[in-house]
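Can anyone check this?
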Amino acid sequence: MDPSIATWRIQIKNANDVRPDFTQNLYHGCISVRSSLGQSILKVEAVDADSVGSVTYSIQQGNRDNAIGIDSRSGVLYNAVLMNSYGGQTFDLKLRATDQGTLYHNTTALIFVTEPTRQVKLVLKQPATEVRQFFEQIKKSLQKLTLQNGDFIFDYVCATQIVDHVLDDGQTTSIWSDVYISGIRRNYNGASYYIYPTTELLNLLNQQRSANSDQFDMLYIQNIEAGNEEKNYLDRTPTMVVMILVIILIILALLFLLLACWCIRSRRKQKEERLRYKSSFRGGYDPSFQQVPEFKVYDNSGFQNDEPVPREPMYAKVGKGRLDERAPEPIPQQIDEINVEIRDASPDSSLPPSPPPSPKDTPRLSEPAEEDYRIETEVM
């Protein structure tokens, strides 16, 4: 290795010696008293030339009641509370951008709280999607309007809402758009700002339109109206909803009525069946439970039956007993002789009738057996 050649290793480090700078010295923003919670107002941005770490944003002064919030990473300002109690007021905020070290930069943001009584509506012959893209051009054109003495009419113009145009019948069209704007100027003392009321702002814009019609035509402005006008549009949607609900309720009522009638009728039939079943055990049917008149198909009330009425059957009780249990019969005596007298077949009326033979004279053929039985009947 040549001793005249030396090798050097140099390590370069980036020192954090440049502060972050905001892109604007003054920011403007508007928010309506009708805005929802967390509505974005504006976005601030600071650039760090060192590119060491990220920049964080914070609000240092002017945030009354902590009504305005800021995203420390993105720099988006939003309303932390509802703004309905701050109408016509201005928030003069001192913002700070800080890098990962100790360097920072401050700027000012003015937040104007507008209300319907301090805005006008511009009707533009352009869709709302396109108007949102070139609204900065519309705003700058309006801020260049001057009075006869050469003073600017507005120091700042902001839009609180850009929506599709609403026709006179209440329907919306996406061909045109409605832009609600507010005009702000600095007071003569320079310490505060003034938000134009609707009537004053409308008169100023109409005067400028008459004097500079070409400029307004280039902005596609068709008409200028008061922003706080509330038209009574004929909206048929609630009426249709109410009619549909009424029809549904009527149908449900009819269904419940039919169900109730069916239940009552079924209950009545069950009751009649139970009464008929009970009356059948009482030997007859109670005609008071009959709901409809009985139609007689055939009347046989005049028919007479001459046949004897059959008597109820009689039942006999049958028992058995031994013959030796009864009293013994007398043993007939021995007969020595039998007198037989033969007479003519024709009866002689002159002779007296012969008496019947005595039972004791009738000979018994044999004695009853020991196991002989007899049948006794008893009529019940």
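Reply from J.R.: I decoded it. The CA atoms of residues 41 and 125 lie 26 Å apart.
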